[in-house]
Amino acid sequence: MCATGKKFMLDLPLKVILTEKGSTHFMNRNKSLLRFKLADNKEEYGISIHNFSPISIQNMILVDYISKIEISMSEFVSKRQEIMDLSKLIVFTLLYKQFDREIFSKIIQCDCVRKYNRGHAAHLIDEKTQIPEKQLRLALSHADDTIQLAKKTILEPVWKSILDNKDYTPEEKNVYLLMTEKFLNRLGLMNWYIIQKFYRSDGFTQMLSVVRQVLAEYMDKSKVAEYISLMVMELALNCENTNMRKEARRMYQGTGITETAIYEPDIRANIISELEKKKELVYLSWKLGGGSSSIGKQGRLEITLYNRDDDFQEAKVNVESKRDADISKRSLIDFYRQEGGEGTDLGLYYLSYLDDACKKVGIKFDSLVNQFQDSDLTVIQLNFNF
């Protein structure tokens, strides 16, 4: 488990769809935006990225510049680790954002803040408080020592608890120690402004307790990132193999070569080459929750896989003109049970652990599979609310 991926650079062909805020940022810096046609046939504006540092994507998500990320590839095996790292990165970043929002909503309810507000009606600190970033940075630049002391005070008992936990391996202890720091380091300026302001106030103990409690909750929530990345990769590989089997039937019909030959390196390479020529791709997208103004939607993540062919639009129109009976909607677990075959047990294993992990930490999770019978189009959706 790692919060930002093991590689300093990731090499993936990303279509990064920008929010209005993100578009404004890039256009103000004379960066031309590209117009993409995405897997759902919507046209959106964004930027194309191939070789990138994980932290650059994370920072863009943290400041609400990105609304969706999409990858389209014929095969995923060669990029397995990088796709899993990207998936974990996205999940962790959304958790950081939710952590920041939840800390703010809870510390402004602390008694020391309420007491301050009673005596400073003209300068209330509540959910409506808006302080310009420049002003916050100036205030915090004079409080660095206090902030460092506050971090140490928050983390010392948390670190002791991790180090004393006999169920953790030394590697796990190091991961959790680092993770606690990452959550705190990604707290927004407003939260640090409040924490340092009341650090020496009577009642700060309550604020300390609140921050530690929320930190513990999000440390638990972070465990789902690994399961999500495994589930995403399993689904992508299943879609990839489905396409390869179909292509193998076309390429090797009558030759005596069976579908299982797709796992032989030379044959697999030939099939991949043919799929790339035909642009028969699997599309994988992460749609991020709304920005800071999208109340109630900030913690949402929608992961979608589209397995489609070149006449997708025609198939879509045909499907939409038919009765509901032609569209099979079911949960992912039902989909796995009906499909059977290669990889099914593994997929059910990942899904079971993911579902259980989400329930334990209060993350809402559901899955949906749409299968369009006339076109062999499969759309798989994993929906999370952190």
Q: Compute the CA-based radius of gyration.
A: 24 Å
The proportion of strand residues reads 15-25%
**Distance between termini?**
18 Å
**Main sheet specs:** 9 strands, antiparallel
Write down how many β-strands occur, each being a DSSP E stretch of 2 or more residues: 9
Strand ordering within the main sheet: 2-3-1-4-5-6-9-8-7
Summarize model confidence as the mean pLDDT.
87
Q: Give the count of helical stretches.
A: 14
- Tell me the quaternary state: single chain
pLDDT < 50 stretches? 1-6, 310-327
Q: Specify the structural class.
A: alpha+beta
Helix content: 40-55%
Give an overview in words.
The chain is of the alpha+beta class. 53% of the residues lie in helices and 18% in strands. It has a nine-stranded antiparallel β-sheet with strand order 2-3-1-4-5-6-9-8-7, with helices on both faces. A hairpin with a 4-residue loop joins strand 8 (364-372) and strand 9. It starts with 9 loop residues before the first strand and ends with a strand.
